[in-house]
Design a protein that fits this description.
This protein is α+β, with helices and mostly antiparallel strands. The chain contains four helices and five strands. The chain has a five-stranded antiparallel sheet. The two termini are 26 Å apart.
Length: 218
């Protein structure tokens, strides 16, 4: 049982961190160096289910929209497809309103295998074929070589800022434990019911178990 609780404690700490990292991985911008071969526009349908406020009935509605796509290939000629949609004022906050201009840029940057023009495509999102998901293009820029690489400053700044927030939360928690929790427990003469542990959670657990055992004996 102790092993189970130990694994559960590790999972509770690790899973939120993994969720945040996957969130950043999806929404932070990343760069691909590809060769653009074509552009097109496709009609995409989406099924939306909503509840009627008057009757309470569920209403299913088909929504169609035209989506711009940029077709490209990697340096090894493997296909790479991007969508070109505006984000507007909503999340994620890229404030992209120039999808039409970006489509024109992509058309102007088209090239052939014999005379390639390499383009750095800045985007967010993943390409998951089974879910019909495409990364969304944010910016295009012609580069000299398929080996082009740039320092991901945005990712670095965001991750440093996130790390600072985590450190501030940890420091505030430690301050709360040392300044308020431990003195409060000592004032209640409860510090003899548990040993000083590495964190307040383990102390609370031991103190609670000790009190429950005493209640069970009464």
């Amino acid at each position: 049982m102790s092993t189970f609780w130990r694994i559960l404690g590790i999972a509770v700490k690790v899973i939120p961190i993994l969720v945040v990292l996957v969130f950043f991985w999806f929404y932070l911008p990343s760069n691909d160096v590809v060769r653009i071969v074509d552009t097109d526009v496709k009609r995409m349908d989406r099924t939306v289910t909503r509840t009627d406020s008057a009757t309470g009935d569920k209403i299913t509605q088909e929504i169609s929209r035209d989506v711009r796509f940029i077709n490209a290939v990697w340096p090894d000629d493997e296909p790479r497809v991007y969508r070109n949609e505006e984000t507007g004022w909503g999340f994620p906050w890229y404030f992209k309103f120039d999808s039409g201009n970006l489509q024109t840029e992509a058309q102007n940057l088209r090239s052939t295998r014999e005379d390639p023009r390499w383009v750095r495509v800045t985007h967010y999102g993943w390409r998951i074929e089974i879910l019909d998901m495409f990364p969304n293009v944010i910016a295009l820029r012609q580069v000299d070589s398929p080996d082009y690489w740039a320092i991901p400053w945005i990712q670095i700044v965001v991750l440093i800022f996130f790390g600072m927030i985590l450190f501030a939360i940890w420091y505030a928690w430690r301050w709360l434990v040392e300044i308020h929790w431990k003195p409060f427990m000592r004032r209640l003469h409860a510090d003899t019911r548990f040993e000083d542990g590495p964190n307040a959670a383990s102390q609370i657990s031991r103190w609670t178990k000790a009190n429950l055992r005493e209640l069970g004996k009464r």
